[in-house]
Amino acid sequence: MNIDFLSNLVALGEGYTTEFKRSGASNLGREICAFANATGGAILIGVTDAGDVVGVENHNRLKSAVQSTARSAEPPIAVDVESVGEVLCVTVPDQHSKPYSFGGKFFIREGASSQQMGREEIREFFFKEGLIHFDEMPCSDYDLERDLTPEIWNRFVNNARLPEGLESSSALANLHLTKDGKMTHAGAWLLCDDITCYTLQAHVTCVMFRGTTKTYILDRKDFDGDLYAIFEDCMAYIQAKLNTALIPHAGGRDERLELPDAALREAVVNALAHRDYRSTANVQIYIFHDRLEIVTPGGLPAGMREEDLGVKSVPRNPLLFGMFYRMGLVERVGSGIKRIRQMCRDYGVDEPVFEISETWVTTKFKRPDEQLGDQSTPQVTPQVTPQVTPQVIRLLKVCDRELLREELQQRIGLADRKNFHSVYLRPALDAGLVEMTIPDKPRSSKQKYRITANGETLLEILRADEIAGDEQ
Of 184, 375, 383, 422, which has the fewest beta carbons less than 10 angstroms from its beta carbon? Predict the structure, then answer.
C-alpha cells in the first residue's frame, strides 16, 4: 500500500471493507475478527471517524500489539501490518478457516460497523459456510416407530440396493441416516410417503406453459413422495411433455427425446441433491415452447464459485449426496455439469445455460427449433408420448373436428363422465395429442377439444402400421 492508495481509501470513507481508528489497539480484536468472518478488509490506525489523518506514534510497538491480537483469535488470523506515512495499515485478507472468534465471541461485518453475532446468527453463519449440514441433523418430526412402515423400508431397500433381510435400525445407523436413535433429515426425505410432512418445501413443482412466458399454464403437477419417487415422477413428467421422434431403421423404429434424457436426469438429480432444504422455496421445473428450466433454491454451496461448475463438486448435502451415489443417481466426482454439457454436444443440441445468483441456480435447456426439425437425424417424425393407451387412441379416432366434451363422450359411448375424463381425455391432453380451444378458460361451458398436429401424426403412424401388417 502506498500514499496514493491510502488517500483513496480515506476519501471513500468507512464501509464494509474499511475501518478507521484514531489510535491504539483497543477493540482491535473485534474488528479483525469481523473482517476475517466476512471477505477481509483494512483497518487504518491514525485516521479519525471523520476521515482526518492524525497519525500514530511508536509503530513498531503497535505492530507487535496488532500481531499479538490477531494470533489470540480462535483460530489465529493472518494479517499484514505496514506503515504508510504516519498511518499504520492493518490488512485482513480473505480467510479460509471461518468462523473466527475473539474472546469467545463471534463478530461479523455489517455495513460500516462490526457486530457481535447472536445465537441464531452464529447458527446461520455455520450453515452458510458449510460447517453444519442440514441433511445430517436430526428430524424432530420423524417418529421411527410410527413413520418407518414395512412398505417404506422395503421400498428403500430396493432403491438403495441393500441386501434383503437387513435389520432396519442397524442398517440405518451404519448408513448414518440415524443418529442417537433419531432419523436425520436425509433419512426422512428418503424414507417417507410425503416429504412435506418433514420439510414443507421439499416437494417439486413441474409446470408446462403455453408459449415462452408464464402467462398461461397448460399443466401443473406437484410431486411430494420420497426423494427417489420425486425424481422418477419429475422425469416421467418431462418425458411426457417434451417431443419424441420416431427414427426408422432396418430393425424397426427408435424413440428419441428432443433433449438428451441422460443430461436431464443429471440436472434433476443435481437440483435435488444440492438445493438448500432450509429455504422456503422449492425446486421448480418449467417447460416452455422454446426451453426447459430447472430452478434450484439456495445458490451455490459454500466454497463453490461459478467458474468451478463442471470442475469440482462441493455438495451442500453430503449425506444425501452419498445416498444418491449408492442409489446410482450421481457420480461421486464433480463431473455432473461437465457430463451434462458433453451429453448435449454429443446429442446435437445446445449446451444448457447456468444462471447463478445468491439464492437461486437456474439451468436452462434450449429446446430444438421446429420440434426436432433442426437436428441432423434422418426421417424424423414428431411424436409426443412414448406410451399411448388404447383409450387415448380411441379418442383420437373420433375427434375429427372441434367437439364439446359431451360430444366426444357420446361418440365413444361412455355414460360415466369421471371415467371419460380420467381415462380418455386427461391422458390425451397431458400427452399433447388433444388440446383445448379455450386453454385460458379450461372450465368454460363453450370449451371444445381438437386433435393436435402430433395427434394427427400419431394416427398416420398407426394407420401405416396397420397397412403394413395387412400386407404381410
Answer: 422
Angle at 448 between CA 443 and CA 449, to 5 degrees: 110
Q: What is the CATH number of the domain that holds 438?
A: 1.10.10.10
Q: Are 187 and 140 in contact (CB under 8 A)?
A: no
> Looking at the structure, do residues 186 and 335 belong to the same domain, yes or no?
no
| Distance, CA of 404 to CA of 443 (rounded, Å) | 12
User: Is the same domain home to 191 and 329?
Assistant: no
**Residue 405 to residue 196: CA distance in whole angstroms:** 36
C-alpha span between 242 and 342 (Å, rounded)? 20
At 402, is the secondary structure helix, strand, or coil? coil
Give the pTM: 0.58
Q: Give the domain-ending residue among 127, 159, 191.
A: 127
What DSSP letter does each residue of 159-195 carry, written as one string? HTTPPTT--HHHHHHHTTSEETTEEBHHHHHHS-S-G
84 within some domain = yes
Helix 390-398 vs helix 405-412: crossing angle, to nearest 10: 110
pLDDT bracket for residue 381 (50, 70, 90): very low
Please give the C-alpha separations between residue 388 and each of 98, 307, 376, in angstroms, as whole numbers.
Answer: 56, 43, 27
What are the angstrom distances between the C-alpha of 95 and each of 88, 92, 101? 21, 8, 13
User: Three cell numbers at 314?
Assistant: 462441493
CA angle 300, 367, 218 (to 5 degrees): 90
Helix axes 261-274, 336-347, angle to 10 degrees: 160
Bin 211: left if φ > 0, else alpha if -120 < ψ < 50, else beta. Answer: left
- Pick the closest to residue 337 from 359, 309, 357, 358 (CA basis): 309
Tell me the per-residue pLDDT of 297-323, one tens digit each, with 9 for 90 and over. Answer: 987 766 556 565 655 566 678 888 888
User: Can you give the residue range of the structural domain that contains 193?
Assistant: 135-199
Question: Do 347 and 206 share a structural domain?
Answer: yes
